[in-house]
Specification:
heterodimer; A: 311 residues; mainly alpha; 0% strand; B: 535 residues; Rossmann fold; four-stranded parallel β-sheet; 24 helices; globular; binds iron/sulfur cluster
Chain lengths: 311, 535
C-alpha cells in the first residue's frame, strides 16, 4: 500500500510540475504580439497609476527616461494572488466562495512545504527536531494543513452550489466543470476523513512524509487515508491539463498582455523580433489580403491593391 | 424579450432570429427619457432583406451576408470558416494576437464577472445573446473541437457545439454586437478578453472569407487606400476644403488663419480624422487657430492617407491595418517631421501610437503623440491668453475608450477642461472605467438596415444615461450644455443619438471637441466661437 501511495505522490507531483512548465513554455514561446495593454498599468509612474495614465501623457515622451515602478506592480500582484482582489472588487458574491477555496489551496501547499522541511530536518538533524522546534513544526503544519483543507473544501462546495443554482452560470457550465469541483470535494473529503479516522497506532503525517522521502516500504498507511492521498495526487496531475491551470495563464495575461507596454525602439530587441515576424508567410484566402503562402507579411503590408485605382 | 437563449441555439437551422428585444426590456433611462412607451419603436427588417441576407441573430443586421443558394455553397463557407479558424491559431497568420487569443481560449473560468461590466449586456436588459462570454464561449468550443481536434472527452470537458452554416452566419453578425471597448476585460480576474475574441472573429471573417462591414472595409479602409481618405476626399479636395475652413475661421475668430501644407522638417505633422473636415470643420479650424497662436511649427500632409488618421483595419483586419499605419508613417517620413500628432480621434490614437508600435520598424518608427498632450502643454504653460468665463456653461467630458482605457491618456484633457470650464462635471464612472459611447469599433459609421436602432437603443444607451445624469442638475432647455468628446467617432455617435432623442431641441445638449472649447475662450478671438447651433 505504502509503495502505491509513494508512487502516486511522486507521479502526481511530477505531472503537475511538467505539465505546468510545458504550458508556460507554450505561452512563452508564442511570438511577441501587437500591444494590447489595458490601463491602469501598475508599473507606470505612481502619479499616473492613480488615474490609470501612461507615458503617452507626457509631451515628447520618447525623450524621457522611463521608470519601472516595481513596487506598484507588486502592490497589485500580491493582493491579487493572495486575496483575489479583482474578484473581491467586481464579483463579491463569487469571492465569498472562491477566496476560501483558493486560500485553502495556498495553505495546503504551505502545509506541504512545512511538512517537507520538517521531514528533512528530522532525517538530517534529528536532535534539532526532538525538542521544541519539532513540536512547533508539528502544530504549524497541522493547523495550516487542517485550515487549508477545511477552507478549500468549504469553498469548493460553495462553488459547486453556485454552479448548480445560479441561472447566469447554467448556460456555460459543462459536465467537466461539475466534475472538476466534485473531484476537489471528493479528494479533500476523503483525505480529511482518512486523517480524522486514521485511528491510534498508525504512522503520523510526518512519518509518512519521511517514509515518502526514504521510500520506506514498511510503513502502514491507513486505507482511507491512502485513498485520499492518491486522489489528491491524481488531482494535482489533472489540474494543469485543464483551464484550472490559470495560475500559469494568469501570469501571461497580466504581464504579457494587460501590462505589456514595452516600447519598440529603433534597434531594440523588439524591433529585431518584428523584423523576423515580417518574414512569416500568411495564407489568408480573402483576395484583398494578397497572401499566397509565398508573400511575406512585409510584402502584404506594403502592398496597396488599390493604389492608383479610381474611386 | 425572447426566452433565454442557449449556446446550442446558435446552430439551429433556419433563419429565425434568436433574440428579440423590446423597449420595455431595456435598461431604464433617467428623465426625460424614462418612459419606454414614449421611446421610438424599432424599425423592422424588411421582408426583402430577410429573404436575401443572413439575419438570423437578432432584430438587426450589420453585415448583409448574402444567403447561400445551395447546401453545397453553405458547406463550402463552413469549410472556409474552419480553415480560417485554424489560421487564427498559427503564428504565420496571426503572430499579431496569437498569445492573447490562446490565453483567452484556454483560461476563462466562466465566472461571468465580466457581464456586469458590459454596457451592451446591461442596456439590453441582460439579454443572454449580448453577454460578453456568449460569443467567446462559442468560439472556445469551436477552438477545442475543431482546432485542437478534441474528441468526446474534450466535448465533455469544454462543451460541444454543432458546426453548421447557421452557426457561422450568426457568429459573423455577433462579432458586430461588441464595441471592442474591453471594459469587460478590465474586470476579468483571469485576464481573459472577450473584446479580443470579437476582434479576432472579425479578422477571421474578413481575412479568410472577405466578410466585413461595408462601412469599415469598402467605404472605409479600401477607399482610404484608393483615394487617400474614407471620406472620399482626394488631396486636392481636402486642400480646397481646408482653404475654405481657414477663411471661415478667420472671419469667425478675427484672427488670420492659414493652414500649412507639406512643410518639410516641421516639428509636428498633425493628422486629423478627415471626417472632421467634412462634418465638424470648426474642429480642424480650431486646431489651426491654436497651433498658430502657440507658435508651433506644424503642417498637414497631402500624401495618400496622410491627411486622414482613420485606420478602420484596427477593428477587423490586420492587413488593412498595417497598410494604413505604414502610409501614415511614410507621410511623416517623407516630410522629415519630428513627430506625428494625432487630432481628436480615439481609434486613430490607439491605432498609430499603440498597436502600430509593433508594426513600424526602422525609419518608419517616427514618434507619435496625442493632441491632448500637446494641447495641455499649450494651455497649462500659458501660451494662449484665455478667459474661462466665456465657457461658463455646464460641460461634461466623454472618455474615448481607445484614448483612455486602451492608451492611458486620461489627465491632459481634464487639466485643460478644469482650467477653462468653470462648470465642468465628470460623468460617472469616468477615466479608465468609462463606458463606450456605443459607436466604438465602427458602429458610429454603421447605419445599414436598421442598425442605428440597435446602436441607439442598446449600445449607446448606457452613455445616454451617463450624459443625462451628468446634466441632471440643469435639465432646463434654456441652459446650454456641452458634451466634450475629443474623438470623431464618438462625436458621430453623439450627433446621431442626441438627434434621435431630440436632445438639442428639447434639452439644449450639444456636443463637440476640446479645441472648440479652447478657442471659445481665447481672449484674442472674437467671442462666440461655439455658436450653439445643431450640426
Ligand atoms: S472572461 Fe473572465 S470574467 Fe468573464 S467569465 Fe471568463 S473568467 Fe470570468
Ligand atoms: S468589449 Fe465592451 S462591448 Fe464588447 S463585450 Fe466587452 S464590455 Fe461588452
Amino acid at each position: 500500500m505504502s509503495v502505491l501511495v509513494y508512487l502516486a505522490l511522486y507521479a502526481g507531483a511530477a505531472v503537475f510540475v511538467a505539465a505546468s512548465l510545458v504550458r508556460a513554455w507554450m505561452y512563452a514561446r508564442a511570438p511577441l504580439h501587437l500591444r494590447w495593454e489595458l490601463y491602469p498599468v501598475p508599473h507606470e509612474d505612481p502619479a499616473k497609476v492613480k488615474h490609470g495614465g501612461s507615458y503617452f501623457e507626457d509631451k515628447d515622451w520618447w525623450t524621457h527616461k522611463r521608470a519601472y515602478n516595481l513596487a506598484g506592480e507588486l502592490g497589485v500582484m500580491v493582493p491579487e494572488m493572495l486575496f483575489l482582489k479583482a474578484l473581491h472588487e467586481f464579483n463579491r458574491k463569487l469571492w465569498y466562495r472562491s477566496f476560501p477555496f483558493h486560500f485553502g489551496l495556498y495553505l495546503l501547499i504551505g502545509a506541504c512545504g512545512l511538512l517537507l522541511l520538517a521531514a528533512l530536518l528530522g532525517l538530517f538533524a534529528p536532535t534539532l527536531m526532538a525538542g521544541a522546534l519539532g513540536m512547533a513544526f508539528h502544530w504549524l503544519y497541522t493547523v495550516v494543513g487542517v485550515a487549508g483543507v477545511a477552507l478549500a473544501l468549504v469553498g469548493a462546495v460553495g462553488l459547486l452550489h453556485r454552479r448548480l443554482t445560479d441561472e447566469d452560470l447554467k448556460t456555460y457550465t459543462t459536465a467537466g466543470d461539475i466534475f472538476n469541483l466534485l473531484f476537489f470535494i471528493v479528494s479533500f473529503g476523503v483525505l480529511c476523513a482518512g486523517f480524522l479516522l486514521r485511528g491510534p497506532g498508525g504512522p503520523g503525517v510526518l512519518a509518512m512524509v519521511q517514509g515518502l522521502l526514504t521510500f520506506n516500504k514498511t510503513l502502514e498507511v491507513p486505507g482511507l487515508l491512502a485513498v485520499g492521498i492518491v486522489l489528491c495526487a491524481l488531482l494535482a496531475a489533472y489540474i494543469p491539463l485543464t483551464h484550472m491551470s490559470h495560475f500559469v495563464g494568469k501570469y501571461f495575461t497580466y504581464h504579457d498582455v494587460r501590462w505589456n507596454d514595452q516600447v519598440n525602439l529603433r534597434g531594440s530587441k523588439i524591433e529585431a523580433k518584428l523584423v523576423e515576424y515580417l518574414t512569416y508567410k500568411p495564407t489568408w484566402s480573402a483576395p484583398h489580403v494578397t497572401a499566397d503562402g509565398k508573400r511575406t507579411w512585409a510584402d502584404v503590408a506594403t502592398t496597396n491593391p488599390w493604389e492608383g485605382a479610381k474611386k | 424579450m425572447t426566452d433565454k437563449i442557449k449556446l446550442t441555439d446558435m446552430s439551429l437551422p433556419g433563419r429565425k432570429p434568436l433574440a428579440h428585444v423590446e423597449n420595455k426590456d431595456l435598461m431604464p433611462l433617467p428623465y426625460p427619457l424614462e418612459s419606454p412607451e414614449k421611446d421610438h419603436g424599432w424599425t423592422a427588417l424588411t421582408e426583402k432583406v430577410m429573404g436575401a441576407v443572413e439575419c438570423g441573430l437578432d432584430d438587426t443586421c450589420a453585415l448583409n451576408i448574402p444567403q447561400p443558394k445551395t447546401k453545397e455553397e453553405e458547406d463550402e463557407l463552413v469549410k472556409k470558416f474552419l480553415a480560417g479558424l485554424d489560421k487564427l491559431f498559427t503564428k504565420e497568420n496571426n503572430w499579431t494576437f496569437l498569445q492573447p487569443l490562446v490565453l483567452s481560449m484556454e483560461h476563462c473560468a466562466k465566472c461571468q464577472t465580466c457581464s456586469d461590466a458590459c454596457h451592451i449586456y446591461e442596456a439590453s436588459g441582460g439579454n443572454e445573446l449580448y453577454r460578453p462570454t456568449f460569443r467567446s464561449e462559442i468560439v472556445r468550443r469551436l477552438y477545442f473541437k475543431s482546432v485542437k481536434h478534441g474528441g468526446v472527452l474534450s466535448a465533455w470537458q469544454h462543451g460541444d457545439i454543432e458546426i453548421n452554416w447557421p452557426l457561422v452566419a450568426r457568429l459573423a453578425e455577433l462579432a458586430y454586437r461588441c464595441n471592442l471597448c474591453r471594459r469587460c476585460a478590465q474586470t476579468c480576474p483571469i485576464g481573459a478578453d472577450n473584446g479580443l475574441v470579437a476582434h479576432e472573429l472579425r479578422k477571421l471573417f474578413s481575412m479568410e472569407l472577405g466578410i466585413s462591414a461595408k462601412e469599415c472595409h469598402d467605404n472605409g479602409s479600401v477607399l482610404q487606400l484608393k483615394v487617400g481618405s474614407s471620406t472620399g476626399m482626394s488631396s486636392l479636395v481636402v486642400k480646397d476644403n481646408i482653404e475654405f475652413i481657414d477663411e471661415d475661421m478667420t472671419e469667425k475668430t478675427g484672427i488670420k488663419v492659414e493652414t500649412p501644407w507639406d512643410v518639410e522638417g516641421a516639428d509636428v505633422l498633425l493628422i486629423h480624422n478627415a471626417g472632421e473636415i467634412m462634418a465638424w470643420p470648426e474642429n480642424p479650424g480650431a486646431f489651426a487657430v491654436i497651433l498658430n497662436a502657440a507658435g508651433i511649427k506644424w503642417t498637414l500632409s497631402s500624401e495618400l492617407a496622410g491627411y486622414d488618421s482613420i485606420n478602420y483595419g484596427l477593428w477587423y483586419d490586420d492587413a488593412q491595418f498595417a497598410r494604413v499605419a505604414i502610409k501614415h508613417a511614410q507621410a511623416a517620413k517623407n516630410l522629415g517631421v519630428k513627430k506625428i500628432v494625432l487630432g481628436e480621434c480615439g481609434h486613430a490614437h490607439k491605432a498609430l501610437s499603440v498597436i502600430a508600435d509593433r508594426v513600424l520598424t526602422g525609419d518608419l518608427n517616427i514618434p507619435r503623440e496625442s493632441s491632448m498632450t500637446l494641447l495641455r502643454d499649450i494651455v497649462m504653460n500659458g501660451r494662449l491668453k484665455l478667459d474661462p468665463s466665456r465657457n461658463d456653461f455646464p460641460v461634461t467630458l466623454h472618455d474615448p475608450c481607445n484614448m483612455v482605457r486602451l492608451m492611458g491618456v486620461v489627465e491632459p484633457q481634464r487639466e485643460v477642461i478644469r482650467k477653462i470650464c468653470p462648470q465642468f462635471r465628470e460623468m460617472w464612472p469616468h477615466g479608465v472605467d468609462n463606458y463606450c459611447c456605443g459607436g466604438g469599433s465602427g458602429f458610429a459609421i454603421m447605419s445599414g438596415n436598421n442598425f442605428q436602432d440597435w446602436r441607439f437603443h442598446v449600445s449607446g444607451r448606457k452613455k445616454m444615461e451617463q450624459v443625462l445624469n451628468a446634466f441632471s442638475d440643469c435639465m432646463d432647455p434654456s441652459i446650454h450644455k456641452y458634451i466634450c468628446a475629443p474623438c470623431s467617432n464618438c462625436k458621430g455617435q453623439f450627433r446621431d443619438m442626441l438627434a434621435y432623442y431630440d436632445m438639442w431641441a428639447k434639452q439644449s445638449i450639444l456636443y463637440g471637441g476640446l479645441v472648440e472649447l479652447i478657442v471659445n475662450c481665447m481672449v484674442d478671438a472674437k467671442p462666440g466661437f461655439i455658436d450653439w447651433e445643431w450640426h
